[in-house]
Structures are given as structure tokens and as C-alpha cells.
Amino acid sequence: MTQERWTAVDDYLTGALVPSDAALEAALDASDAAALPREAVSPTQGKLLHLLARSIGAKNILEIGTLGGYSTIWLARALPTGGRLVTLEANATHAEVARSNIANAGLADIVTLHQGPALDSLATLAGPFDMIFIDADKPSNPAYLEWAVKLSRPGTLIIGDNVVRDGAVTDPTSADPKVQGVRRFIELIAENPRLDATALQTVGSKGYDGFVLALVT
Ligand code: SAH
Ligand code: DHB
Ligand code: MG
Q1: pLDDT above 90 coverage of the chain, percent
Q2: How far apart are CA 114 and CA 64, in angstroms?
Q3: Could you tell me if 63 and 87 are in contact, meaning their C-beta atoms sit under 8 angstroms apart?
Q4: Cα-atom radius of gyration of the chain, to the nearest Å?
Q5: How many other C-beta atoms can be found within 10 angstroms of the C-beta atom of residue 38?
Q6: Which residues on adjacent β-strands are paired with residue 115?
Q7: Is the Cβ atom of 136 under 6 angstroms away from ligand 1?
Q8: What are the C-alpha distances in Å from 106 to residues 61, 102, 207?
Q9: Are 217 and 195 in contact (CB under 8 A)?
Q10: What is the distance of C-alpha 146 from the center of its chain?
């Protein structure tokens, strides 16, 4: 199986199930124009996050790692009237592009973007959040998990992106700090008696990766 085939299937599924949307496409175009890294979730993944948020009736969502706001828009659109999303982004250029994309999607009043290192912003937030999406610098995932649990309640759904990393996650001796961060993250989830979790490998237009899902009990 090849990347070409995974992308073709993602394109097919997206065409069938994920209606094209001007604000989401504009967010990706503006992100490319500003030379942001192409690390946003794929359309099918964005819709998965959106459907999960709707399924649990999330009213307050926390996102760690905004980039250009693509996943932010998917998640914020899952909120009912009065719902709120807080998103954290360290990079000033990414934050500026995201603010503009979020405003263009009509979500400026629903989304609060804190620009600065997530660990600084997290210390200022009041929970609980109903859903928390962890998708920033992977070496900090263990610290983000600790905050996520602090800012949760029983029933909160915590999701982490990029936990497979082309399969590198299985290597305990990896010299890649992203792999080490993800491995410690998975271990801490497994060890925490308040968390009930699973993880899924994914292939598609973003290659071979995966998500971890943990329910706070
Ligand atoms: N969730 C986005 C993708 C995020 S990419 C989407 O799917 O559309 C990861 C982002 O985390 C990048 O924009 C990067 O600048 C940001 N980041 C890296 N280190 C960070 C930190 N310490 N605090 C907050 N954001 C950080
Ligand atoms: C990376 C980060 C992401 O959030 C992503 O979705 C893909 C790759 C990275 O840091 O390599
Ligand atoms: Mg990611």
C-alpha cells in the first residue's frame, strides 16, 4: 500500500462524506500562502473531531496547538449556541493566520485564541472542558496530559494527535524527542486510573499516524 493509494481513498471519502466548505478551504489556502507547515488534520479527521464533539454534546472545548485554525474551525462548528472554544498557539505568525481564518469562518465570538507557550496559558484557564484536543509540540505531551486531566471532569474526552508517527512510536530507544514525548504520553494515560483509553492507527492524505482517545471517568 502506498501513500498515493491512501490519498486517493481519502479524496474519495472526502468527496463522498465531507461537503466542501469555503471557510475551511480558505483556511488551508491562507495557511499555505503564509507558508505554515502542512500539519493540519485532514478533512476526514477534522470531521471525525467534529462528530465526536457533537456526539458528546461538548459545550466547552480546549485545543492545544492551533496552527492556522483548521481543526479549530471543525471543532468550533460542533458547538451549540453559547458554546466556547479556547485554543492555544505559541507561534505569533500561526496565531495571526488562525485569527484571520477563524474570523472569516464567523467564529471570532466563539473562539478565544491565547498566543504564547501553551504551558503558560494553561495555568490561567478555568475548567472543566468537555473535550480537549492535544496537538502541539509532542515533547510537551506529558505536561499537556497533566493539565488536561486537571481541566477535565468525569465524561471529558481527551484526544491526542500524531501518536503513531509512521510506526516510530514502537521504538523505546528512539532519539526523536517527539517519539519519546508520545511514548511517555501513552504510558501516563495507561497508568492513570481516571482514564479509560484506546488508540487508532490511521492512514490517509497525511500518511501513517494515529490518534489516542481517553475518557475521563
Ligand atoms: N491542530 C492543528 C495543527 C497544529 S500543528 C490542526 O490540526 O489544524 C502544531 C501547532 O502547535 C503549531 O502551530 C505549533 O506552532 C504549535 N506549538 C508548538 N509548540 C507550542 C507550544 N509550546 N505552545 C503552544 N503551541 C505550540
Ligand atoms: C507533526 C505535528 C502535527 O500536529 C501533525 O499533525 C503532523 C506532524 C510534527 O510535529 O511532526
Ligand atoms: Mg497533529
Answers
A1: 100
A2: 10
A3: yes
A4: 16
A5: 12
A6: 89
A7: yes
A8: 17, 7, 31
A9: yes
A10: 16
Q: Is the CB of 209 under 6 A from ligand 1?
A: no
Give the pairing type, strands 84-89 and 157-161: unpaired
pLDDT at 1 over 90: no
Residue 135 CA to ligand 3 centre (angstroms): 5
Q: pTM for the whole thing? A: 0.98
Report the atom number in ligand 1 closest to the C-alpha of 69. Answer: 8
96: helix, strand or coil: helix
Are 150 and 202 a contacting pair, CB within 8 Å? no
Ligand number, closest to the Cα atom of 64: 1
Round to whole Å and give the CA distance between 169 and 209. Answer: 10
Which residues does ligand 2 sit against, CB inside 6 Å? 39, 135, 138, 161-162, 178
pLDDT digits (tens, 9 = 90+) for 30-73: 999 999 999 999 999 999 999 999 999 999 999 999 999 999 99
CB distance 78 to 57 below 8 Å? no
Residues 34/59, Cβ–Cβ less than 8 Å: no
